[in-house]
Amino acid sequence: MRRLAILLMIFIYSRGAIGSEIDTIPWTASNIAKLNKLDKATVAAFINNLGDSGSPVLDPYRISSFKWEDLATDGRAELMIWTYFPAISWLTIYWREPDGTFHAQTLSGEKNEIKDLDGTGKKEIIMDSYLDPAGRRGANPTPVWPQVYRLQGEKYVPATKDLPGLYAYYEREILPKLNDKIDKTKRTWPPGEVDNAVAVLEMQRDKILRVLELDPTAGLEEAKQWVKSENPDMVYNSWCVFQDIPGHKIEADSAHQTWLQAMQRRRSNAP
Hints:
By secondary structure, the chain is α+β, with helices and mostly antiparallel strands. It has a domain at 219-271. It is 45% helix and 20% strand. The chain has eight helices and eight strands; from the N terminus they run H-H-H-E-E-E-E-E-E-E-E-H-H-H-H-H. The protein has helices spanning 2-23, 32-35, 40-50, 166-188, 191-211, 220-226, 232-244, 249-269, and strands at residues 63-69, 78-84, 89-96, 102-108, 110-115, 124-130, 144-152, 155-158.
């Protein structure tokens, strides 16, 4: 028992010693290159030392990537950590106040890119956000869309169509490639899989049209057709669309029940 206690003390001390390396380097733009040379174990230990005893332990292998970035172009660097679990991924941003205290913000979604869309010097974060509230769908295509977050004060908030550069970003960089991918998917995917594969791409396109307010109900008519499908995946897609468009809770609840029934039939017919 005494040996176990000693080993535990060594573990706690070593974890703190590793993580403390980050605390000795000022989080400034001039030190970004040095900070980015650290490894995942060091970063995980530092984050674990920040949390209280009730916080879950961040394992290094859950970190898909990390980087320090001067997001506001103010000379201060923020730590960005992308972590993942089997069904969902997210980004956590840590920043340090002049008095040494730390704050954090978490955004759900998969890694995409960091760009200054409006030319202000403050960088927007673009995350592939899930249109499926459950996160990833395993082997099935997962509907995601590139959601833009803008820096407001010290935190990131979802960008609206009023953000300069947002319309151009979607219109020039995203929608043309997305339409080409929809056309290619229709031509190349096998018959039993093509409907769902096309649907998740159309859901992404329609979400962008709704955000830009080019078509506030984009995807609604498709969802009304998908809910009638014998394919549970298509019914599930309709549920995701209905619940994302304001004023369609009744259709969303009905689609969810229809999906549950379809899944029950699929399990009953399984060999």
